[in-house]
Write a structure and sequence with these properties.
There is one protein chain. By secondary structure, the protein is α/β, with parallel strands linked by helices. It is built from four helices and four strands, in the order βαβαβαβα. The protein has one domain: Response regulator (Rossmann fold). α1 packs across α4. The protein is globular, with a radius of gyration of 15 Å.
Length: 166
């Protein structure tokens, strides 16, 4: 064993990995960097399906991210079975993703809905904007942003727990 500390692994999950989860990944990465946590964590995203494997994020998601001042990086991929052993937190966009991730073997205590971290939320899910107009993507960004402080607090707490237990 090298003695090097494994990074805290967080993965954002949506359906096709072209709208919600890559947007959440990009927003969280910037927020984690600004909070000084980026050296301690590995951030990723995936879809419950692999229909868009290898594709860039949806152009409307890219536009909404850039308009809000975020990068729009990402390449779509499906969630792989081995990841259930290696990720510390699976952050899902809606309940269907939670059910799928749990059914595929993720430990229940590691699976959360992103909106759980938004104290001002009116509902628990980030709706899929894919089949709607461009305005849905702006609303998606606002929902993702409003949950990030709470999610960062969770990750900070988890990291502190690791350090305390090491």
């Amino acid at each position: 064993m090298s003695g090097a500390r494994e990074p805290y692994r967080i993965i954002f999950i949506c359906t096709g990995n072209i709208c919600r989860s890559p947007a959440a990944e990009n927003i969280f990465r910037m927020r984690a960097r600004d909070a000084g946590l980026l050296p301690d964590i590995a951030i990723d995203s995936a879809g419950t399906g692999d229909w868009h494997e290898g594709e860039d994020p949806d152009r409307r998601s890219v536009q909404a991210l850039r308009e809000a001042g975020y990068p729009a990086d990402g390449t779509a991929r499906g969630l792989r079975s081995g990841e259930f052993l290696h990720h510390d937190l699976f952050v899902c966009m809606d309940r269907s993703h939670v059910r799928e991730v749990l059914a595929r073997g993720a430990p229940e205590e590691r699976v959360v809905l992103l909106r759980e971290f938004d104290a001002a939320r009116s509902h628990d899910e980030v709706p899929d904007p894919y089949y709607g107009g461009v305005e849905g993507f702006g609303e998606m960004i606002r929902m993702l942003e409003s949950a990030m402080d709470g999610l960062l607090a969770r990750v900070r707490g988890d990291l502190a727990g690791r350090r305390g237990g090491a």
